[in-house]
Write a structure and sequence with these properties.
The structure holds 2 protein chains of 2 kinds.
Chain A lengths: L11 H16 L12 E6 L5 H12 L3 E5 L13 H8 L5 E6 L4 H6 L6 E6 L5 H15 L5 E6 L6 H10 L5 E6 L8 H8 L5 E5 L2 H4 L5 E4 L10 H7 L7 H4 L7 E3 L20 H19 L11
Helix pairs in contact in A: 1-5, 1-11, 2-11, 5-6, 5-11
Chain B lengths: L9 E8 L3 H7 L9 E9 L3 E9 L9 H4 L4 E6 L2 E6 L6 E3 L10 H4 L6 E4 L5 E3 L9
Antiparallel strand pairs in B: 1-3, 1-4, 2-3, 4-5, 6-7, 7-8
């Protein structure tokens, strides 16, 4: 039985196959509307999430399946002190596949050890968010037609931003990806990402504090939000939250085929005026997230042979 | 000077930092063995001044990999028929279970006490929590 706990749980080839299936689904979603008939997805969300939970639920409903679960820890047995191991053993009796979001890092890994159904990590604290990574890869590939030979700027909170870490780990597996790491000093990418991910992969990278300076060379700009919930100290959050704001002025120096991504939700790091710029890809990303999650559910349930392929 | 007989068959763990012999005794789970174990504390050492020694009689198949994490200066001799038959090389183990604790308050191990504390040796020669991947700092 396969789980998805870490973005690297899927090889480059497996990721490619999943993105191919996502593309087929995107081309003709109706063809897949009965693929998961009679299958149930449990969404175990121990911390608030609008986008990811609804995306999973939308994905399963579009596949003809049904969903059950909880949206906060307060409404689960965790409030009574139940372990994630016991919870997943119980949920394994109710559903065919499970998506788990948990504020504690490593909780989905612990749950997977006891799960009798495929388990998807839907985000564990500041650690991993593999379906966001797949969504990002899907969006990059749909926009640029490839995952290699790209210059990607990662901007904002590179220290606590789990989506950034996961994306870097995934993209170093593709040839000729160059990284520009744009952040204030306090929110620099952790040393281990440089020492254990970028350098061993011999990936080209540089650290930068100026977004304006980096703009002209980028194929992809991945903006991130400075997340209040990752700070223990409110003062630090207030001081750093507005360091980078993407405006039309800054976009003037960008390539005409730049794609701007953001895992969302945004606060004010992308000005609203950018939404109408054809280079803004962050709402496409949300749609792609549904296609990717549909493909992932099908893959983990072993249903990739079902459905009419139209591409 | 106190004399402890040399063992005929077994293992001698030598050059243990003085004062840490009991800690190693517990880490290796030696209390669970059904054989003769001697701990010598504060033995004279030309190299370190003082040292601890552990002698285990009649057994040579226990897992000593944790010693490579605790102190790379420790030496391990396998004794057969009263002579050193083999000197074991200590290397840091790939995995540590319940030896060190993750200090990340966001880690699942900080919320659920029953979960084993598992650390894996990373490519940089440092240990990371298997759950949250945070590097361990002593």
């Amino acid at each position: 039985m396969r789980h998805l706990i870490d973005p690297l749980d899927f090889t480059v080839e497996e990721t490619g196959a999943l993105l191919d299936l996502s593309e087929c689904i995107a081309q003709n979603p109706e063809s897949y509307s009965e693929t998961c008939t009679h299958k149930k997805l449990a969404t175990l969300f121990y911390e608030p999430s609008t986008r990811t939970r609804l995306s999973f639920e939308s994905a399963m409903l579009r596949l003809g399946g049904s969903v059950l679960g909880f949206a906060t820890a307060d409404s689960s047995s965790a409030a009574k002190g139940e372990s994630v191991a016991d919870t997943i053993r119980t949920v394994s009796c109710y559903a065919d596949i499970c998506a788990m979001r948990h504020p504690k890092e490593g909780a989905p890994l612990q749950a997977a050890r006891y799960s009798r159904i495929p388990l998807i990590n839907a985000g564990d604290g500041g650690h991993q968010h593999p379906t966001q990574t797949l969504t990002d890869l899907c969006t990059i590939r749909r926009r640029k037609g490839r995952l290699g030979d790209l210059t990607i700027g990662l901007c904002g909170d590179l220290k606590f931003g789990r989506t950034v870490h996961s994306l870097v780990k995934s993209l170093v597996r593709y040839p000729d990806v160059r990284f520009v790491l744009i952040s204030p000093e306090e929110l620099r990418v952790p040393d281990y990402i440089i020492g254990e991910v970028l350098r061993p992969a011999r990936a080209a990278f540089r650290e930068e504090t100026s977004l304006e300076k980096a703009m002209p060379e980028l194929d992809i700009l991945y903006m991130t939000r400075v997340q209040r919930e990752r700070f223990f100290n409110e003062e630090d959050y207030v001081r750093l939250k507005d360091t980078y704001i993407l405006t039309s002025d800054k976009m003037k120096n960008a390539r005409p085929d730049l794609a701007v991504l953001h895992p969302l939700p945004r606060v004010n790091e992308i000005a609203l005026e950018i939404d109408d710029d054809p280079r803004a890809a962050y709402f496409e990303q949300v749609q792609n997230g549904v296609w990717v999650r549909m493909a992932l559910i099908m893959t983990l349930l072993g249903l990739t042979g079902k459905g009419e392929r139209t591409c | 000077m106190l004399n402890i007989d040399a063992i005929q068959n077994g293992i001698v763990i030598d050059h243990i930092q003085s004062g840490t012999g009991m800690k190693l005794y517990n880490l290796l789970g030696l209390a669970e063995l059904d054989c003769c174990v001697a701990i010598i504390q504060n033995a004279r050492s030309n190299k370190y001044g003082k040292k601890d020694i552990i002698k285990i009689e009649g057994i040579e198949t226990i897992d000593l990999s944790i010693l490579g994490y605790v102190d790379s200066n420790i030496t391990v001799d396998v004794i057969r028929d009263g002579v050193i038959a083999q000197k074991q090389q200590l290397v840091p183990p790939q995995k540590l279970v319940n030896v060190i604790r993750c200090k990340n308050p966001r880690c699942i191990t900080s919320a659920e006490e029953a979960i084993d504390q598992v650390f894996l040796l990373g490519s940089g020669g440092r240990y990371r929590c298997a759950y949250c991947e945070q590097e361990y700092h002593a």
